[in-house]
Design a protein that fits this description.
With 432 residues, the chain is mainly alpha-helical. It is 72% helix and 2% strand. Strand 1 and strand 2 form a beta hairpin. Helix 8 runs parallel beside helix 11 and helix 11 crosses helix 12. The chain starts with a helix and ends with a helix.
């Protein structure tokens, strides 16, 4: 009973880190910041006990590139004489995310006595399931929606006022969709692990069912999850086809279970679509591209049409090199004399376009190198999950086609892992 309570508390705190929000009565500090302060305390205690060597090495390496992103922001602001400091404090933001993750992973380690990619993945899956369920409950029960809208805010990420889509607590729009998409990739890893370890078939059934549930509800929150789902499927299929460990395992029972889950999920969705107007509205939003294809012969959505209009690039070398120093609306600058916009510079919210207009190819290249370094550091922690981290990196690069948000938050807990090989060497050394 005590262990169940401990795990439940960690899941809630992990959600506070993964999907941070502000309380309306405490508008200056969000839950991520609270977790980061506690993470710093845990780090200080571990530092005193000499248990942070590997983490410090990773922290130093990724901090160099995060500092590079901040410097590129400063350089563009200075050359272009603009006040837009959107990425000036990126290194601070990265530290906050990382130490918030450090606290959550420390709690996991205290309960489970060890930590692994699988354990972290299970907690992230639990958070995704809770957020999707909360989104349904908030949409279905007005009293819960009123409580959420009254006491919880999230810098416009809550999705409040957007009638056709769901939102959880801190989980909404493209930000929520991107992170849920990354969790689907992690769940593909967990499913592959359950096959490889020949776990009970009910475990496989539960994992596949959870993935379908998150995919369906997640699309009603943010359709960016579909990108994560596509990468997860490719990662899963390639692992089955090319991983030597999978070739000796009979896969027919697992494929049969997957087919059953998909059919059950499809039956439930069709039934709800035909009998419940609210579900019909949400399903039409979540899977708009498919409805448009079958009804009008065009596989497109309102968002993809906006993207095709917003994916624009500079027309001069200087902007390509160092940017114009604007990412947010130019109207925030009293000295701005450029064209009017609807909230984003050059009327685009496409990620790559915004980065290039902000700090050019210089800043974008450093930013990409930052994520490549983060991915490499995660791989060093767990070689077995190499392709998992590469898939998450690919998702991040794909998301930037649509929006400028990143998913460092997903990498952060895995950066807190300790390489098992290094741990074993240290134990041998201590015994000697």
């Amino acid at each position: 009973m005590i262990r169940t309570i401990q795990i439940s508390v960690i899941i809630v705190l992990t959600s506070f880190f993964l999907f941070p929000f502000f309380f309306s009565f405490l508008p200056s500090i969000n839950t991520k910041m609270m977790m980061a302060v506690l993470g710093l305390i845990c780090f200080a205690l571990d530092l005193l006990n000499n248990r942070t060597q590997e983490f410090r090495r990773s922290l130093f390496k990724i901090s160099i590139y995060a500092l590079g992103v901040s410097l590129c922001s400063f350089l563009s602001m200075t050359i272009n004489n603009t006040p837009d400091n959107s990425y000036l404090g990126y290194i601070i933001s990265m530290w906050v995310w990382l130490f918030a993750a450090y606290f959550c992973v420390s709690l996991m380690k205290s309960v489970h006595k060890h930590i692994s990619v699988e354990i972290i993945g299970q907690y992230l899956m639990a958070v995704a399931l809770i957020q999707c369920t909360l989104a349904l409950l908030i949409n279905h029960y007005p009293i819960l929606q009123n409580l959420t809208d009254t006491y919880i805010t999230g810098e416009k990420y809550m999705g409040v006022g957007v009638e056709e889509r769901l939102y959880g607590i801190g989980c909404a729009l493209d930000v929520g969709g991107g992170r849920l998409g990354a969790i689907l990739i992690i769940m593909a890893y967990l499913i592959l692990l359950s096959i490889k370890q020949q776990k009970n078939k009910w475990v496989f059934f539960a994992l596949v069912s959870a993935s379908i549930y998150i995919l369906i509800i997640g699309n009603m929150i943010g359709r960016t999850i579909s990108v994560g789902a596509a990468i997860a499927l490719i990662y899963f299929i390639c692992s089955l086809l090319f991983n030597p460990e999978m070739r000796s395992i009979p896969l027919k029972p697992f494929l049969f279970i997957t087919l059953i889950v998909v059919l059950i999920g499809g039956f439930i969705c069709i039934n709800l679509y035909q009998t419940d107007p609210e579900s019909q509205k949400l399903l039409r939003f979540g899977f708009e591209a498919f409805f448009n294809y079958f009804e009008y012969g065009k596989f497109e959505t309102h968002s993809t049409n906006m993207l095709s209009e917003g994916l624009i690039f500079p027309d001069n070398f200087k902007t390509w090199l160092i940017g114009d120093g604007y990412m947010a609306s130019g109207s925030n600058d009293p000295y701005y004399t450029g064209p009017s916009d609807y909230g984003f510079y050059m009327n685009t919210d496409a990620g790559y376009s915004r980065f290039i207009f902000y700090f050019g190819q210089t800043g974008l290249s450093v930013f990409i190198l930052f994520f490549i370094t983060v991915c490499r550091e995660c791989i060093k922690k767990s070689e077995d999950a190499k392709y998992l981290f590469i898939a998450i990196l690919l998702l991040n690069l794909c998301i930037w086609i649509k929006v400028s948000t990143d998913i460092f938050v997903i990498f952060a807990p895995f950066l807190c892992l300790v390489n098992s090989n290094i741990t074993n060497k240290a134990e041998i050394y201590n015994k000697i």
